[in-house]
Amino acid sequence: MAVERRPLDTFTLDNGLQVIVLPSGRAPIVTQLLVYKVGSADETFGRTGIAHFLEHMMFKGTATLGPGEFSRTVARNGGRDNAYTGFDATGYHQTIAADRLDLVMRMEADRMAGLRIEEKELRPEREVVLEERRMRIDNVPGALLDESVRAALFGEHKPYAMPTAGYVEDVKKLGAEDLAAFYRRFYAPDNAALIVAGDTTAEAVRKLAEIHYGPIPGRGIEPRHRPSEGPADLPRLVTRADVRVAQPNWSRDYLAPSYRAGDSRHAYALQVLAHLFGGGETSRLWRALVAESRLALSASAEYSPLSLGLSSFGVAAAPARVEAIPDIERAVADQMKRVLDGEVKADEVERTQNRLLAAAIYAQDSLGSGPRRYAAALATGNDIADVEAWPQRIAAVTASDVTAAARHVWRDERAVTSVLKPSGGAR
Prior knowledge:
It is a single chain. The radius of gyration is 23 Å and the shape is globular. The strands form two sheets. It has a six-stranded mixed sheet, sandwiched between helices. It is an alpha+beta fold. The protein has helices at about 50-55, 70-75, 100-115, 120-140, 140-155, 170-175, 175-185, 200-210, 265-280, 285-290, 325-340, 345-365, 370-380, 385-395, 400-410, and strands at about 10, 20-25, 30-35, 80-85, 90-95, 190-200, 235-240, 250-255, 295-305, 310-320, 415-420. Strand 1 and strand 2 form a beta hairpin.
């Protein structure tokens, strides 16, 4: 299956802002995504949660826009906006009618350069941030277990071990100057990339970008660093028993290379492996654990190479009952052994590649996932050429590459096993 190159134009402003234009005339709308090359992994232990808290405060006003006025203006003009914070990137995006691109670009540039962080806005927003953490993490046993797993896998107090939401005690202590210092350090045009997709042209985007973003000076951002190795105390077992658990879960996570860290030559084969092994109801893991033995209600594998540092490869299953967890573990080990022993066949790899390439074709038509692919790549040290070459590199993966990648990653000294179950007995 061939994936045609998506029409694309790119240029860089004098202040260092990289701009990507993905023209599409399917509908008279555009998406602007501004991604900053900073995330929660750029924080330090004891001062976590800054990147996410600052994302919230970016909606609290500048000298020209009052608190909340950014989103209200987008909504009044028939658009929608949102933002996200990850370990390596923070993004702000709006989708709106094509003739309103000037408006959202002006407002986005305004808060890149002129954000106001005031205590009177910070105090109530802190409660919003803490409530978000309570809802998404503290009240979700699986999310709490995930925090423990990341700490064990990447090492206590290390960049990818600390939660994006921050620790409660840290967030409670953050003040306006903490957020302002982080903003001044990282929010600059030479530490960002602008992706505009939809019904526009490179010429139109360049003109608007030079007007709105061009006057903002670059700051000369220092390179970011991530640990090159994991902790020395692996393998580890992490368990959590909680009365709130309705569905038990078993998983195993392995330290894995990314495009930028570790033995990155395995990154493309690991993507094929994840889909072949646990990517849906036709995968090896699903067939063995769900369809055939009925030990599990679901089974999956997950891997992403888009990380500035090391990544992880995860295998998970939801047991049909708590007592089945030992059987799940043995069944997963059996399926992994088959891969490690070289039982992966060329036709199986080809089918997996076709599914991956089909997903890439669909992503090109999306004003959401399309820009996000470029944003994630640029924020983690990759470039446009890497994104465009992805189909060819996936298509070049062989069965022996998949086996070699599995042998490289699936090792006990790189693993954390975790078990989530109800407290007070099985259900």
